[in-house]
Amino acid sequence: MTTPALLATALTLAARAVPVLPLRAGKVPFGNCPNCAANACGGRPNMKSAGPCHCPDVCHAWAAATTDAATLTSPRWASAWRRAGAVAYHPGGAGLTVVDLDDAAAVDWARQSLPATRTVPTTRGQHWIYQGATRSANHVRPGVDVKSSMAYARWLGPGSGRMAELPDAVRALVVKEPAAVRPAPHAIAVPALAGGGECRHRTPTYLDRGIAMAVQRIGEARGAVHATVYRTFLAVLSTHGRCGCLTDTHVTRLFTAAQAKGETPRHCTDAWTNALTTLGL
């Protein structure tokens, strides 16, 4: 594609709420600008954690993906588009998950193991795209990568077929095996991971008070809002994320508070995902 064609594709995707960025030849993102080299900006080291960097350059891989047309067409991004070889997008930021199947054997496995969904042909295999975001992981099985949150995928066209909801079978591919623990000398109640189990705090009052304090902490932020939101999400999940007591209502309260301070839904999702990843949830 020519530069105008790449940029036109990016703008079309951005208008559909799909965060996009240019890729260099070889399907790799642009490197850090001088101000962000060696994490001098204090931002996302190796694009794996939240940080305060507000660099306007396209230099943070998936974290640079945006739906803002003004940014995509800005003079600072013009040089990147002139050198670009492809358009990429952040699946997790669009609420999507891409199962990247590298070869025919991986495609055969998917056809036998996963529900049918929208498919996009690649050079050697296929992308299977599902509605719903999850963690990303490479080499989850031979020839299979999962690209969603904190990852990018090359845009290869809209594909064909009806997009299905993200199945548990894909979520299970990226779940880390729990670390071995030494048996306790006496019986204890072990809290379940998020999604089930009795809250170890025994009473919802404790949780409600914790959410209220978290909302207040976000609301009182006078600067470094990104960092405050991330630290607050991390604190909430470290306390309540393993016992199954958090509900969509609680998460919505946190996201609403963050957006009232100027955070975008994408920033909220990224901060929440980063906190989950940090805690191994």
Describe the structure.
The chain is an alpha+beta fold and 281 residues long. 36% of the residues lie in helices and 14% in strands. The strands form 2 sheets. Strands 3, 4, 5, 6, 7 and 9 form a 6-stranded mixed sheet that branches. It has a 3-stranded antiparallel sheet with strand order 1-2-8. The longest helix is centred in the C-terminal third of the chain and has 16 residues, at 204-219. It is globular, with a radius of gyration of 20 Å.
| Structural class by secondary-structure content | alpha+beta
Overall residue-averaged pLDDT value: 81
Q: Major β-sheet, in short?
A: 6 strands, mixed
How would you spell out the order of helices and strands? HEHHEEHEEEEEEHHHHH
Residue stretches low in confidence (pLDDT < 50, at least 5 long) are 45-50, 177-197
What proportion strand? 5-15%
Number of β-strand runs: 9
For the terminal residues, how far apart are their CA atoms? 40 Å
Roughly what percent helix?
Answer: 25-40%
- Overall 3D geometry? globular
Tally of alpha and pi helices? 9
Rg on CA atoms, Å? 20 Å
Fold topology:
Elements: H1 3-15, E1 20-24, H2 69-72, H3 75-83, E2 84-89, E3 96-101, H4 104-113, E4 118-121, E5 126-131, E6 137-141, E7 144-147, E8 153-154, E9 164-165, H5 168-173, H6 204-219, H7 225-240, H8 248-260, H9 265-279
Parallel strand pairs: 5-9
Antiparallel strand pairs: 1-2, 2-8, 3-5, 3-7, 4-5, 6-7
Helix pairs in contact: 6-7, 6-8, 7-9
Keywords:
single chain, 281 residues, alpha+beta, 3-stranded antiparallel beta sheet, 9 helices, 9 strands
